[in-house]
């Protein structure tokens, strides 16, 4: 079974895309780590926010594919924030530092929740032009952990990891999904107690998205039909919250489809971003548009033929 960590694609990503570290808060310990790839002339890139267990590396396949088609892509690893408003304020400062007025956000699980909260936080002076929400949620109460969210900071790292690993798939999975889980476990091991405790706190402290504040934001919801950490009720709630959202369903993919079903996820991201081609909010180099259109049409045809089999 080929591991992602030793795959040629991952090694190519690590050797060609530099990891940048940026401090935007008064607190020097709050370091944002990010991969910024693709044409810097693009002022409205797509930014990726990872789940509780993830780092900026988990989106390496999206970074490689989308930059190859001419998009500017930024994948983030956020510092320790214990409060949603504090996170939103730090993220706004990061965008100011990067001189980005508006962005597209792709968020997985907690990353998707943070993306929605940031869009809500900046609704009076909008910074988020569109959202792609993958296996995400809109209300933390679905985890039934709001009562423990104040005590995560006291727990040792091994216990926090055990809580997170409890949401990983346990049944039989195909080799690609098994590789994705192995990779995410490896990423989880790289996170310290502070990072784990703060992310679980953000994930579980009592909060929900107020949809009327972000009704003008274009949304695509990506979810899977097989087993994932999200309940059917949580998915239905997302559909109700965003009745006009585009829906992209994957037959399988588990918790981490961006790793084990990357071609399909990348296609859905491209289809989402195509609606902004030719506008000031385009995330792609204009000279690459026609080639990318042909690529998407070819991929869509392949996907349709696979789905009909």
SSE layout:
Blueprint: H1 8-16, E1 19-23, E2 31-37, E3 46-49, H2 60-68, E4 73-77, H3 84-97, E5 103-108, H4 110-121, E6 128-134, H5 157-165, H6 175-189, H7 193-204, E7 218-224, H8 232-241, E8 246-250, H9 257-260, H10 262-274, H11 289-308
Helix pairs in contact: 2-10, 3-4, 5-7, 10-11
Labels describing this entry:
cytoplasm, Maspardin, eight-stranded mixed beta sheet, AB_hydrolase_fold, about 300 residues, about 40% helix, CD4 receptor binding, alpha/beta, 11 helices
Assign a percent range to the helix content. 40-55%
Number of helices: 11
Largest sheet: 8 strands, mixed
Mean pLDDT: 90
Outline = globular
Which residues form runs of ≥5 with pLDDT under 50?
none
What structural class is derived from the secondary structure elements? alpha/beta
- CATH topology-level fold name: Rossmann fold
The CATH homology group name: Alpha/Beta hydrolase fold, catalytic domain
Question: What is the CA-based Rg, rounded?
Answer: 18 Å
**Overall structural domain count:** 1
CATH architecture: 3-Layer(aba) Sandwich
Order of H and E elements: HEEEHEHEHEHHHEHEHHH
Strand content: 5-15%
Strand order of the largest sheet: 1-2-4-3-5-6-7-8
Compute the separation of the termini in Å.
26 Å
Number of strands: 8
CATH class assignment:
Alpha Beta
């Amino acid at each position: 079974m080929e591991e992602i960590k030793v795959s040629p694609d991952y090694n190519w990503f690590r050797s060609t895309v530099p990891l940048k570290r940026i401090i935007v808060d008064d607190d020097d310990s709050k370091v944002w780590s990010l991969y910024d790839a693709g044409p810097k002339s693009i002022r409205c890139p797509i930014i990726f926010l990872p789940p509780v267990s993830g780092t900026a590396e988990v989106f390496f396949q999206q970074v490689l594919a989308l930059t190859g088609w001419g998009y500017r892509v930024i994948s983030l690893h956020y510092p320790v924030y214990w409060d949603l408003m504090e996170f939103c304020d730090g993220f706004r400062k990061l965008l100011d530092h990067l001189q980005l007025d508006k962005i597209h956000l792709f968020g997985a699980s907690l990353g998707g929740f943070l993306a929605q909260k940031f869009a809500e936080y900046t609704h009076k002076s909008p910074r988020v032009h569109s959202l792609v929400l993958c296996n995400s949620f809109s209300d933390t109460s679905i985890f039934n952990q709001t009562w423990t969210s104040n005590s995560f900071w006291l727990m040792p790292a091994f216990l926090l990891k055990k809580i997170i690993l409890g949401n990983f798939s346990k049944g039989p999975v195909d080799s690609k999904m098994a590789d994705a889980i192995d990779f995410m476990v490896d990423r989880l091991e790289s996170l310290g107690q502070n990072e784990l405790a703060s992310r679980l706190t953000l994930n579980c402290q009592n909060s929900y998205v107020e949809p009327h504040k972000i009704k003008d934001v274009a949304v695509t919801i990506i979810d899977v039909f097989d087993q994932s950490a999200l309940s059917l009720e949580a998915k239905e709630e997302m559909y109700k919250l965003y009745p006009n959202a585009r829906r992209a369903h994957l037959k399988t993919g588990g918790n981490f489809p961006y790793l084990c079903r990357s071609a399909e996820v990348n296609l859905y991201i491209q289809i989402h971003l195509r609606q902004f081609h030719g506008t000031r909010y385009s995330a792609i180099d204009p000279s690459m548009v026609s080639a990318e259109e042909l690529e998407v049409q070819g991929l869509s045809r392949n996907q349709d033929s696979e789905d009909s089999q």
